[in-house]
Amino acid sequence: MAYHSKDRIDMTSTTHCRMTLNEVHAIFATAEPEVYELSINLTDMSGQTYDGEYLSRPDDTFGLNPIIRKWLAENPNFPIQSHTPPAAEQIRASMLSLSARQLRLGLVDAGISPTQVTAAIDAMPDGQEKDRAQIEWEYATSFSRLHPLTTMAGRALGLTDMQIDAMWTVALDL
Asked: DSSP string spanning 117-162?
């Protein structure tokens, strides 16, 4: 169900520019109470009309938010989709990359010697996968959480995904 406005809802900002809420496509609850992510169609201050996402907080008095909050109050029956926490893989995919330094220090702080990673790679069967892993380990300047080398080394070292996640999070601050 989408809201279509025959009479667009206008808001005049303090700079006398106009923003218009044209349509509300969907509303999604977030983990924070009374904070919503809206899928909307709007016309911005330069006259451009487009679809976009808008995060609305109850105490935000800037931009389009006051008119969105007014619209929410006037349309209490518009369906708000419940918040679904992200899955573990989504969280891992959004983790920042680690520099080679951060990764190696994180391993040491977790009680794992970088030579143990080298030994795990050396134990792989000869072939392209092993060669690629050696090159990544020796020459990569950064590592992503879901990179195959991260997964392979973690498994070879007997680490669970949750242990790798915890180590990764700590290493981000190194």
From this structure: HHHHHHTSPSSHHHHHHHHHHHH-SEE-TT-HHHHHHHHHTT--HH
Cα separation, 167 vs 153, whole angstroms? 13
Task: Report d(CA 66, CA 70) in Å as an integer.
Answer: 6
pTM score over 0.70: no
From CA 91, how far away is CA 94, in angstroms rounded? 5
Average pLDDT, integer, range 118-135:
95
Q: Which residues contact 163 (CB under 8 A, 6 or more apart)?
A: 110, 154
Question: Do residues 130 and 156 touch, judged by C-beta distance below 8 A?
Answer: no
User: Closest Cα to residue 1, out of 83, 82, 81?
Assistant: 81
Token pair of 28 as six digits: 């999604």
Q: Which two tokens stand for residue 173?
A: 């601050």
70 three-state secondary structure: helix
Helix, strand and coil in the chain, % to nearest 5 = 40, 25, 35
The residue count of the chain comes to 174
Q: How confident is the model at residue 100 (pLDDT cuts 50, 70, 90)?
A: very high
Distances in Å between the Cα of 38 and the Cα atoms of 21, 64, 65, 81, 133 are 11, 12, 11, 10, 43
